[in-house]
Each structure stands twice: as structure tokens, then as C-alpha cells.
Amino acid sequence: MTFTNADSLDHIANVYVQDGLKLRHLEFSIMDAGLKTHGDKNNEARTDRFGDTPQLPDGRILLQPNGDATDQTHPWEYNASRPGKYWVELVYSLASGKSIAVPNISSYRIPTKLEATGAANRFHNINLGKIYFVQAGKQKLELKFRGETPKVRALILRPAPEGEPIGQALDRSILLHSRDATIHGTKLQYEIKPHKNTIGYWVNPTDHVCWDFTVTSGGMFDVEIHQGCGKGQGGSLVALEIAGQKLDFTVKDTGHFQNFIPRMVGTVNLAKGEHRFWIKPVNKVRNAIMDVRRIRLIPIN
């Protein structure tokens, strides 16, 4: 158990550690002496903090209880900046007994059992499932409880994969398609229409995208990106990052954002295990950066 900085305790929504690619939540207590974390001592504790607006630049949405809440019902209204999928996480305390959380968010209503945390000031994080904002704009969110009434500290919407888990094919290639990406940002989105089927609306250079996948047979891989860019919009510099390796390339004007061309942009060495592939803009020179339909990692040995 460790004590951390006691400043701005009211702004702390959640506490977690980053263990490799995994994010693991910690139980924490709000004490007179400050924030007390429980559990992992081998990794630095990090915090999700409430800010001036519900959505942070990396896409996380942190919602606090508001004046419309009652003991059994917590409503929110949120103006979504983009469509997309999110994990819904509840941060709560429950001194004793049991409760059931029943969300009503974008038609998602699957209940989740809540166990006691042992004290009213000891908070626990639990994943309630994955929701999908079909479109940007006003969203109504509601959380009800059955049984004992927990204290709600935060409802967190954390960017989730848009599609399915990614594996390695029999020929050892790996397909990172836009439909399976995780969007970290406020405007960037997966455009689901068949003639698009792409990551688009890349107008914010702070918006990033990643794919998590498992390599079962490692080695060297060529990186091929299928990239589109509107007429006169090329020239932005973009970085691809994976396993401590970085490849920079300049976006090409392809005449239209959905006119995709395959481009070989370098090679990477991937060991067996779990990996995260990032696309991060370095600079934006025109109105938008590019559209990306897919990336292929092609084995070369």
C-alpha cells in the first residue's frame, strides 16, 4: 500500500498501472492524508483525472455524478465528438452487500454484479461492457442500480477496438484493417460506409490510432500501408511505431481520400507475443492528414 500526491483529490476518477500493453485498475481509498492505492507495487500508479471538459484529447470520456442523480439512478448527457466504440467502466465504492449495475447507453442494457469494496471510501473499477455511438452528437446515458446503493465516483468511456481481435494468418502475414482499429482522439473515426471502409476525418494531429495483435511466428516484416489523400492535401509527416521501432513517411496526394494506394514504408522486426501498432501524425500541412484503409505486415524471412 502506498500514499501518493494528495493534491486535487476531487479530480481523481480512477487509478491504474500500465503493465506492458495491459492496463490494470487498482483499488484506491480517499483518506484525510491523501490518496491510498492498494495492490501493485511493481509499477507506477497512474490516474485518470477529470478535466475542464468530459473528453480528454486521447479520447477518454470521464463523467462525474451530477445534480440530477438519485440514490438509484445516475443520468448524463454527453455531446459525442465522433461515432465509435468505447469500453464502459464504473468506478464505485460499496461498504457492504451486493448491487447490480444496469446501464442504458446507446441501447446497451446488460447488467453487471457489483461486489462490496469493504469501505465507503474504497473504490473499485469494473468494466460494464462495450457500447457504440452510431453517430456524433447528443447522447443520453443512464446507470441504475438494484440492491444496495453504491457510491459512484466516475463513469469512464475508454476507446475500444472498433472490430474483432487480430491474429496472424497461416502465411504469417498480419492484416491491420481500419475496421479493427482503436481510435484515440476526438475527431478521427472509422467510417463504416462500404465505399469508405476507412479511418478518416483525420483533422486533428493529436488524434492517434492503434491495433493490438498477437504474433505467433516472429521475424522481419515489410510494412505496407493502403493510404488515400485528397487532391492538394498531401505532404503531412506520419510516424508508425511498434516494438520500439519507428518508421516515418510523407503522405502522398492520391487525388481523393478514398483513392487508396499501397505503399511500402519500411520493415520491422517482431518477436513472438503481443504487440501494439501505432499511427501518430508528426505534422499536418493541409486541412486533413490522410485516410487509411489497411496495413499489411508481410513476412520476409
Task: Tell me about this structure.
By secondary structure, the chain is an all-beta fold. The chain folds into 2 domains: 2-159, Galactose-binding domain-like (Jelly Rolls); 174-299, Galactose-binding domain-like (Jelly Rolls, Sandwich), CATH 2.60.120. The protein has no helices and 25 strands. The protein has strands at 2-4, 12-19, 22-25, 27-31, 34-38, 45-49, 61-63, 73-80, 84-93, 99-105, 112-114, 122-133, 137-147, 151-159, 174-177, 182-184, 189-191, 198-200, 208-215, 219-229, 237-242, 245-250, 256-270, 273-283, 291-299. Strands 1-5-4-12-9-14-7 form a 7-stranded antiparallel beta sheet, with no helix packed on it. A 5-stranded antiparallel beta sheet has the order 16-19-24-21-22, with no helix packed on it. A hairpin with a 2-residue loop joins β2 (12-19) and β3 (22-25). It is globular. It starts with a strand and ends with a strand. The model is unreliable at 1-6 (pLDDT under 50).
Strand order across the largest sheet: 1-5-4-12-9-14-7
* Radius of gyration over all CA atoms, rounded: 21 Å
* CATH homologous superfamily placement of the largest domain: Galactose-binding domain-like
Q: Please provide the count of β strands.
A: 25
